[in-house]
Every structure is written in structure tokens, then in C-alpha cells.
């Protein structure tokens, strides 16, 4: 402690001392100095040299010890604060800030501890949970309502989690629950379905009942099992994917699921390699105007030419490529080759009508699609009037989809023809034809195959063609496989046909030979 001390003698002026008091185990040390300049002290007390002695450095040691003590206390306080901050940071790093339950990092740590912990191989279960229709809650009631649904889901998991279990929010609307001491699969299945029921209860937000469903993939595993954490989580995701095929379902992982997934991963790798090696090519199937005998259009169909076998049909890669979100790259590669080949045929003088390409509604919704597509046409030297786009997702193509309709109007304004493929199937309906600028209807082959043997199908086919004619649509009958089918539909008023009876899809060089041969036959017939 710093001190200011006054010494008051009986006679004369008092003296002031400045000093420091240091507490030690032996008592208190006072280190004092006069509160005036040393020269004044010498003069006032008539001090001589003999009155001054060497300084005792003991007090300096006391000062040093006291300073060390202060520094040590400060260091201990700092270390304690740093430890508390570190523990808080670690807690926050493993906690989902919205729901308060664990996050993906916490799940990873917990599973790693289980798999690498010594002891008996106890049974555990990982439940991977994904909410169904969660986006609809956000879209209809706002993100605050969606947050309430997430908090509700977390509270449900917390109620089912025991002392050694872990509920986590992996991210978005994905959750997980790790259960310990799981011995009865039927009881586990019952617990999973109870979770579905609890999660599906309505959450009320500003008077609105917000409802979601859920799908759960379940993986059972043992302590000390030779399985890394990422593979375990991946396995739970595989089970979840199978569960989501049926909403609000529970699926336990099976070896067949893992085998299908591994095969899909292998196929995705091969497809990506095929894209890199430029292996995806266009095949062309003609649409024939039966009255003139001319090719009215060429439909472009993607094929995978591995150079080892026959070109692979879309059935071998389409679903996997769509799931892996790499179909746009395939479409672009095929489209570029198709444009170049089509331009080459026009330069050679072939009368090939329009070039028709299948297009998904999701691709059309892209804000960049029109500009990119027109740029590709320009680079190939083609005009938009030469192109027909076939919309294959009729389920998404209705009057409520204003953005899609606006995009189609833009394409039509550039001169591109729009066709509705597979008409009459799924959710396509007459109402879906009122506003969108569709001018061509392709009647699905399911209404054509066997039409000559079924009076009821004949009535349906005739009614569809008559209706389309009344609405001034161009009608194409696809999937023609017999001459009888062609004759019947021609008599019903259909003029354009496509199918194996006329020509299967062909690679470019084969189609060119077919056109040369066909033109020669047409000329020969005309001459005779």
C-alpha cells in the first residue's frame, strides 16, 4: 500500500514521509522517504556524510516478491478467464444455436467416442431424421414459423433422449438421434414411429397450424465396430433416402440398400468421367409428315457412347445423373453436338424440319437459360425458328407457375416452338393448355399401343385428336410400332407420326444414310 505519513514533533515543524507498506509473514515492512528534496533535508538537519549508510537491498527483494505475487494472481485470473472462455467456445461449437441441441460436430465427436471406446460391444442406433414439407411452412408462414417447427422437433428428440443419448440438428431440417443400449429392434421401430407421430403434431404460430411430416433412416451398430464415423453417417443417409420414397416412413438400413448406393456412386463416377471424355452424343429420331412424306422434325435423344458396347440408353444413366445434379452437363454436351450436326445437314441441303429437344421445367426456370440457349444457337449458326422444345414435366406446367409461363412466352417471342410431350399422362390436363404458349401436343404411346384392338382406346384417341384440332394444336402421335396403328390414327385426323415403325433413334451417320436412301426412294416413286 502506498502511504503518506506525517510525524508531528512536540516542537517545531512536522515532517512528512512517503512510503510503501508491504505485508509479509514476519509482519509489515515500511519503506519510507522524506517528503521533501534531499537537499532540504541536509540543510535542515545539518547532516554529514557519516549520516548516510549503504542501502539495505532487503526491501527491494520484498518489492520483487510482492510484484511476483501480484503477477501470479493476475496470471491465475487470466488463466481462469481463458479456460472459461475456451469451455464456452467449445460448448458453442458443439451446439446448434437455434434449438440448443447438439450440431453435426457434436454428432461426429459422440459417434467417434462410441466407436473407439474400449469395453463390451454394446448395441447403439443412429436415427437420421428429415422433415417432410418443411419448405411449405417457410413459404406459407415465413421463416419464423419454420424456426418454431425446428425448435419443436428438437424438443421432441430431447424428450426421447436418455442420459447417454444425443439429439442433434445436423443442419437445415435434418436431425439425428443417437440411442444407446438398443437391444430390441421392434422396440426401436416403435420408438421411431412415435417420433414421427410427435414431430407431425401441429405447431401453432400466429394462429396458424404449421404441420410437417418426417422420414427416418435407422442404422444399428456396435461399439468397437470397424466403421468410420463418416461411413456410419453415410449409411444412415442411405436408409433415410429409402425412407423418403414414402413420406412419413421408417426404414432400417439393409445390405441391399448399401449395395445399391455403392453402385450409384460408382456409376456417378463413370458418368462424370464420360462427360470429361466427351462420350455423350445425340441420337436423332425423325417425326414424319405422313401426307407429304417429309421429315417434319428430328427429336434429339441423349446416348452414352462408351466405345465398348452399343450406345447406352438414358435408362442406364438418367435417374442417377439427375440425382447427382449432373444431367445439365450431359444436356449441354449433347445439345452442342446436335446443333453442329443439324447445321451441317442444313448446309448439305437436307430437308430435316425443326430440331426438337427435350427440356425440363427446372432447366427452363433458370434465369440464365434463355440467354445461354440463344448464345449456343448463335454459335452454331442456327436461328430460333428452327428449334422446338418439348416440355417433359407436365406435372409442373400449369397456370399457377407464372415464372415458367413467362419464360415460355419469352422463348415463343424469339420464334421457338413449344411442344407438350407425353400428353394425356400424369397430371397434364386440358386446363394446363389454356395459358402456356404450347402449339404442339405429342400424344403418349400409352394411348396408341394396342389402339387397334380396343374400341375404348380408339374412342379416347379419336377424342384427343379432335379436341386438339379444335384448339388448333399440331398433333404428333408417338410410339407408332405398326402400320395398323398409323392408318387408324391417320384416319382420325393425325398427320405427324414418330416411332420405330417409321424409324428408331439413330446416330448421326446412320440417320444421314437413312435420309439419303429415303429421298432416293421418294424420288423413284415420284418418277414412276
Please provide a brief summary of the model.
By secondary structure, the chain is of the alpha/beta class. It has helices at 38-45, 58-93, 104-116, 134-141, 143-160, 185-199, 229-244, 255-276, 318-323, 327-348, 361-365, 369-380, 402-413, 455-470, 483-491, 508-527; strands at 2-7, 15-24, 27-34, 123-132, 166-171, 174-180, 203-205, 208-210, 213-222, 250-252, 280-289, 295-304, 354-359, 387-391, 417-423, 440-443, 474-478, 496-498, 506-507.
- The N- to C-terminal Cα distance equals 127 Å
Instruction: Describe the sheet with the most strands.
Output: 8 strands, mixed, barrel
Number of strands: 19
Number of helices: 16
Task: Describe this protein with a few key phrases.
528 residues; eight-stranded mixed β-barrel; 22% strand
Describe this structure in words.
There is one protein chain. 45% of the residues lie in helices and 22% in strands. With 528 residues, it is an alpha/beta fold. The chain has an eight-stranded mixed beta barrel with strand order 11-12-13-14-15-16-17-18. Strands 5-6-4-9-10 form a five-stranded mixed β-sheet, sandwiched between helices. It has a three-stranded antiparallel β-sheet with strand order 1-2-3. Helix 4 packs antiparallel against helix 5 and helix 5 runs antiparallel to helix 6. The longest helix is centred in the first third of the chain and has 36 residues. The chain is elongated and about 145 Å long.
Amino acid at each position: 500500500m502506498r502511504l503518506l505519513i506525517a510525524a508531528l514533533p512536540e516542537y517545531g515543524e512536522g515532517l512528512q514521509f512517503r512510503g510503501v507498506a508491504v505485508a509479509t509473514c514476519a509482519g509489515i515492512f515500511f519503506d519510507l522517504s522524506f517528503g521533501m528534496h534531499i537537499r532540504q533535508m541536509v540543510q535542515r538537519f545539518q547532516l554529514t556524510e557519516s549520516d548516510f549508510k549503504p542501502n539495505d537491498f532487503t526491501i527491494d527483494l520484498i518489492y520483487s516478491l510482492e510484484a511476483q505475487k501480484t503477477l501470479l494472481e493476475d496470471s491465475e485470473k487470466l488463466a481462469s478467464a481463458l479456460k472459461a472462455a475456451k469451455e464456452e467456445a467449445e460448448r458453442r461449437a458443439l451446439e446448434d444455436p437455434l434449438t440448443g441441441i447438439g450440431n453435426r460436430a457434436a454428432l461426429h465427436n459422440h459417434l467417434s467416442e462410441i466407436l473407439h471406446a474400449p469395453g463390451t460391444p454394446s448395441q447403439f442406433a443412429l436415427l437420421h431424421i428429415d422433415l417432410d414439407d418443411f419448405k411449405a411452412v417457410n413459404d406459407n408462414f415465413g421463416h419464423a414459423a419454420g424456426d418454431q417447427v425446428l425448435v419443436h422437433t428438437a424438443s421432441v428428440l430431447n424428450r426421447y433422449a436418455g442420459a447417454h443419448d444425443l439429439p442433434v440438428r445436423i443442419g437445415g431440417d435434418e436431425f439425428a438421434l443417437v440411442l444407446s443400449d438398443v437391444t430390441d429392434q421392434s422396440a426401436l421401430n416403435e420408438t421411431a414411429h412415435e417420433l414421427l407421430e410427435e414431430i407431425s403434431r401441429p405447431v401453432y404460430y400466429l394462429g396458424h397450424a404449421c404441420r410437417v411430416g418426417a422420414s427416418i433412416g435407422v442404422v444399428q451398430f456396435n461399439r468397437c465396430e470397424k466403421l468410420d464415423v463418416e461411413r456410419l453417417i453415410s449409411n444412415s443417409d442411405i436408409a433415410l433416402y429409402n425412407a423418403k420414397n414414402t413420406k412419413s416412413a421408417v426404414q432400417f438400413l439393409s445390405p441391399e440398400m448399401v449395395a445399391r448406393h455403392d453402385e450409384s456412386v460408382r456409376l456417378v463416377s463413370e458418368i462424370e468421367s464420360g462427360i470429361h471424355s466427351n462420350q455423350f452424343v445425340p441420337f436423332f429420331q425423325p417425326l414424319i409428315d405422313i401426307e407429304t412424306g417429309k421429315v417434319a422434325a428430328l427429336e434429339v435423344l441423349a446416348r452414352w457412347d462408351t466405345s465398348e458396347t452399343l450406345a447406352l440408353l438414358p435408362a442406364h444413366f438418367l435417374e442417377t445423373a439427375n440425382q447427382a445434379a449432373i444431367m445439365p452437363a450431359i444436356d449441354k454436351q449433347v445439345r452442342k453436338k446436335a446443333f453442329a450436326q443439324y447445321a451441317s445437314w442444313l448446309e448439305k441441303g437436307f430437308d430435316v424440319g425443326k430440331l426438337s429437344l427435350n427440356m425440363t421445367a427446372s432447366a427452363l426456370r433458370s434465369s440464365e437459360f434463355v440467354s445461354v440457349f440463344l448464345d449456343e444457337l448463335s454459335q452454331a449458326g442456327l436461328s430460333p425458328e428452327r428449334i422446338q422444345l418439348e416440355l417433359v414435366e407436365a406435372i409442373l406446367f400449369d397456370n399457377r407457375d407464372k415464372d415458367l409461363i413467362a419464360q415460355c412466352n419469352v422463348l415463343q417471342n424469339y420464334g421457338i416452338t413449344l411442344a407438350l410431350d407425353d400428353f394425356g399422362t400424369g397430371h397434364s390436363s386440358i386446363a394446363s393448355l389454356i395459358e402456356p404458349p404450347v402449339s404442339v401436343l405429342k400424344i403418349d404411346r400409352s394411348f396408341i399401343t394396342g389402339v387397334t384392338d380396343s374400341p375404348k382406346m380408339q374412342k379416347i384417341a379419336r377424342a384427343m385428336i379432335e379436341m386438339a384440332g379444335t384448339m388448333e394444336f399440331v398433333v404428333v402421335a408417338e410410339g407408332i410400332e405398326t402400320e395398323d396403328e398409323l392408318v387408324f390414327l391417320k384416319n382420325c385426323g393425325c398427320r405427324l407420326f414418330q416411332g420405330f415403325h417409321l424409324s428408331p433413334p439413330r446416330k448421326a451417320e446412320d440417320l444421314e444414310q437413312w435420309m439419303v436412301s429415303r429421298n432416293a426412294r421418294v424420288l423413284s416413286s415420284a418418277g414412276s
